[in-house]
Design brief:
The protein is built from 9 helices and no strands. This is Probable membrane transporter protein.
Amino acid sequence: MFELSAFDISLLLACALFAGLVDSIMGGGGMIQVPALFAVLPGFPPATLLSVNKFGSIVGTIGSAIQYSRANKSPRGLVMISSAFAFFASVAGAYLVTQLPTQWLRGALPFLLIGLLIVNIKSSAGLIHEPKHQHHKQKAIASTGAGIIGFYDGFLGPGAGAFYKLLYTRFLGFDFLRAAAPAKCLNIASNLGALCVFFYLGYFDWKLGILLASANLIGGQIGTKIAIKHGNAFIRKGFFILVTVLIIKTFYDAFLK
């Protein structure tokens, strides 16, 4: 790892802790952590910074998933099969991103997010736990959605955690608290898939990864306790704020940057 000042290390730790906190409540921690990494470490290969972000996110998300699972039991079969789809789709997306341009997807993303935000504001999705489908149909929808989002996570990535939560609340009828652990598991799977590709290509820094992972874990534990304490309405508001920020950021990245 490059030589870092005490200020640089403190800044990275603070951003990683806050990213873990935000990610555990509503997803989207990468919007905080990735810009911080690129700002503090401009000399690092971008792929290395992205892989370190994935590693830190995985560790923090595992901690959050355990806490959410203790509060509300998750359907293991559903989570396992959809996580497998997310993992392999993310591997494909991470590989493909090295072969194809992503600008077309960047341009479409803010408009997709606007549509999803409008649909969710007009519904009560996430406030009440009312699963919509029987087991086989539920697994088919979860696996298809996880595959699509997992591919996107490996290919581009911003807001994938929020998309997983949306899959469970909007399309499967879970409330936000019961959707939290499954969404976290899917996010772990797709992050791990992309990380495997980065590992294979030799892009990683263990010292930096462990540094960020420790702060992510602490932030995730704090955020999960806040979310469990304040419940679905609180998470729903946070989710809408996150999607709004994602719309602004993705629009800026696609058309103004």
